[in-house]
């Protein structure tokens, strides 16, 4: 009996060694890595073999010193393996020829759908080449996701979008796009919770991070943001939608020549809330609008009768310093329907680039300031 048990134990061990921690190199699945051949099929094949094996911690290897040309593709379940890793060290490029893309209706390039326990790690680079696509890397319903180390260049639209994911860590990544490229958000988060983003560098033509409806427990720290539109909650409540964002902490970040810094923007006539938001220890260099709440975010020329608004409350701006390109260092333009409530301005030390007296403009704001006397007049009593 004992011998049988021992043999069974050894067999299990052997099985685990065979299925766990295996490496699936895309080159072994037919990828050329010459930057010209279409390697999409090889990637999908390597992925599905890996996912089918059921082992823990299997690795899809995208090796260094190779350039892989990929069409839009989706990595999706079923992935039997409870945790998978993509060791991404090479270079991935989009086709230059836009015609090659036209037959795809998806507005995404590389998507991961319903993969739990996914880690993408390495020194790899993704080159969107500004193709006519939306999101560069799209993650939907991926719980326990980690993205570590990679660099993304010239995404045509959002670089990384996170939708309906729980427990996400993003660190040591770099996202780069020209300052004048439209809608190239760095990281776009929606309907997701428990997101930790730290030690990142993002310079794009739009928001470094956009935190949208259904997001909660979001921490962003030690981000170098710029150029771009800063770190934004919203826009929320478009077309009367109900939007909820709560528990957001943005700390120890720097902003270099961004259009905005710490921003919350909502459309008139939305519903829901944005609350429990902390912007702490932020440094600005020549930022146009360092601190801004905009509850009148509308397309030009649109007239709205305001009947409701996304309610903004418990928002703290503290230890904020640096220089503002415009004289208006703080603009809190809140809804007359909901007002902004429990707003705290604390230790604000922002000078204007041209040496003019800083201007603080507040409408419909309840709250207080500590150690920031120049903004005392901001609040309703
Ligand atoms: C994989 O990990 C899970 C949870 O840690 C464990 O239950 C399962 O037995 C492991 N599978 C293999 C093949 O080792
Ligand atoms: C997963 O595998 C990688 C290398 O393939 C290794 O570095 C890592 O420590 C492994 N993680 C676990 C939890 O076994
Ligand atoms: C990639 O190229 C660099 C520089 O040429 C070399 O040092 C390195 O060993 C190469 N790596 C691989 C995996 O071939
Ligand atoms: C965010 O930071 C707070 C305070 O430092 C911590 O309590 C919380 O667990 C963090 N949340 C995430 C998702 O990392
Ligand atoms: C906003 O997010 C919530 C929570 O995830 C979701 O139930 C709702 O459908 C979203 N609203 C819109 C308009 O997308
Ligand atoms: C921010 O920086 C301060 C001072 O260096 C440090 O004490 C604090 O722990 C940092 N906060 C985070 C969330 O990294
Ligand atoms: C206000 O928001 C902060 C996060 O910035 C949170 O720690 C605190 O609990 C919130 N206060 C209330 C009363 O909800």
TrEMBL record:
Superkingdom: Eukaryota
Oxidoreductase keyword on record: no
Subcellular location: Secreted, Cell wall
Listed InterPro entries: Glyco_hydro_28, PbH1, Pectin_lyas_fold, Pectin_lyase_fold/virulence
Keywords: Cell wall, Cell wall biogenesis/degradation, Glycosidase, Hydrolase, Secreted, Signal
GO MF entries: polygalacturonase activity
Gene Ontology annotations of biological process type: carbohydrate metabolic process; cell wall organization
Signal peptide: 1-21
Keyword Secreted in annotation: yes
Active site location: 229
Primary localisation category: secreted
Pfam families found in the cross-reference section: Glyco_hydro_28
Entry similarity comment: Belongs to the glycosyl hydrolase 28 family.
UniProt name for this protein: Pectate lyase superfamily protein domain-containing protein
Organism: Capsella rubella
């Amino acid at each position: 009996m004992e011998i049988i048990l021992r043999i069974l134990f050894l067999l299990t061990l052997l099985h685990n060694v065979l299925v766990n921690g295996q490496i699936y190199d895309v080159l072994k699945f037919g990828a050329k890595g010459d930057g010209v051949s279409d390697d999409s099929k090889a990637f999908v094949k390597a992925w599905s073999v890996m996912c089918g094996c059921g082992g823990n911690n299997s690795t899809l290897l995208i090796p260094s010193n190779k350039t892989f040309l990929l069409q839009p593709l989706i990595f999706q379940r079923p992935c039997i393996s409870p945790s998978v890793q993509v060791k991404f060290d090479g270079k991935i490029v989009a086709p230059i020829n836009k015609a090659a893309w036209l037959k795809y209706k998806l507005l995404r390039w590389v998507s991961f759908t319903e993969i739990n326990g996914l880690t993408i790690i390495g020194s790899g680079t993704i080159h969107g080449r500004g193709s006519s696509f939306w999101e560069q890397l799209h993650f939907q319903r991926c719980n326990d996701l980690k993205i570590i180390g990679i660099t993304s260049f010239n995404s045509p639209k959002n670089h990384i979008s996170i939708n309906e994911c729980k427990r996400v860590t993003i660190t040591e990544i770099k996202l780069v796009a020209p300052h004048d490229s439209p809608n190239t958000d760095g990281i776009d988060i929606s309907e997701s919770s428990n997101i930790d983003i730290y030690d990142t560098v993002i310079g794009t033509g739009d928001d470094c991070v956009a935190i949208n409806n259904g997001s909660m427990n979001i921490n962003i720290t030690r981000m170098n943001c710029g150029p771009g539109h800063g770190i934004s909650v919203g826009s929320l409540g478009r077309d009367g939608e109900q939007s909820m964002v709560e528990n957001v902490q943005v700390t120890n970040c720097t902003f270099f020549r961004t259009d905005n810094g710490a921003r919350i923007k909502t459309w008139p006539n939305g519903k829901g809330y944005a609350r429990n938001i902390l912007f702490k220890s932020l440094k600005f260099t020549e930022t146009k609008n360092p601190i801004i709440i905009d509850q009148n975010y509308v397309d030009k020329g649109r007239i709205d009768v305001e009947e409701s608004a996304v309610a903004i409350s418990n928002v703290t701006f503290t230890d904020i310093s640096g220089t503002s390109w415009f004289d208006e260092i703080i603009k809190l333009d809140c809804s007359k329907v909901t007002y902004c409530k429990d707003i705290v301005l604390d230790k604000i030390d922002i000078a204007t680039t041209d040496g003019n007296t800083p201007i603080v403009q507040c409408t419909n704001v309840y709250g207080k300031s500590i150690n920031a006397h120049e903004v005392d007049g901001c609040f309703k009593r």
